[in-house]
Each structure stands twice: as structure tokens, then as C-alpha cells.
Amino acid sequence: MRGLPVGDGGWEYDPDAHHVIGETPNLVFIAQVEERADELVRAAAALHLDGTSHQGRSVAIQEEILPGGMFQYLTLVRQERPHIVQVTAWPL
Q1: Is residue 84 part of a domain?
Q2: Residue 23: is its pLDDT beyond 90?
Q3: By residue range, what is the domain housing residue 31?
Q4: How far apart are CA 74 and CA 63, in angstroms?
Q5: Which of 2, 47, 90, 92 is 20 to 30 A from 56, comparing alpha carbons?
Q6: What is the pLDDT of residues 82-92, one digit of tens each?
Q7: How many CB atoms lie within 10 A of CB 64?
């Protein structure tokens, strides 16, 4: 879902996938991260029905721990999308 226009219900790696993921060999873990990111999009849509008009405080960076590692993300409410800023896979 990366690289889609604002308000599309997508998410992205910030600044880009290579910077965030790097050369992580654990592709199963990366697939779990991206699946969870899809779920975060749906959760953000339910929480912020019209993110473009959001006037409240920004949401802090949050962490998700999954089997095989963790990732950090920031939901940019006005852009209506989570941005994954760091992915850390545990050693294989």
C-alpha cells in the first residue's frame, strides 16, 4: 500500500522501505509487519472518521511487537495514514 495518495486508506515506510527495512533477510517477519500495517489503517479509519479536519494533538510514535521482532509507527491523522519509521527483526 506504499506510495498511494493522501486519504487512500494506505500506509507507507518513512522515508522509504530500504531505509526502514534495510537488508532484513526475514521476509516472513516483513510480511507480518505489512499485514499489521493494513490492520492499523482500518483502526485509524475507525478512530478518525475525517482525519483531514483533525484539530487535536498529534499521536505519538507507537510500537508493535510481533513474533520475530517489532516496529515503530506514527499515524499522521491529517494525511489519514500510518508511517512505519523503524523495523527491527530479532536475529534468526
Answers
A1: yes
A2: no
A3: 12-89
A4: 9
A5: 2
A6: 899 999 998 86
A7: 16
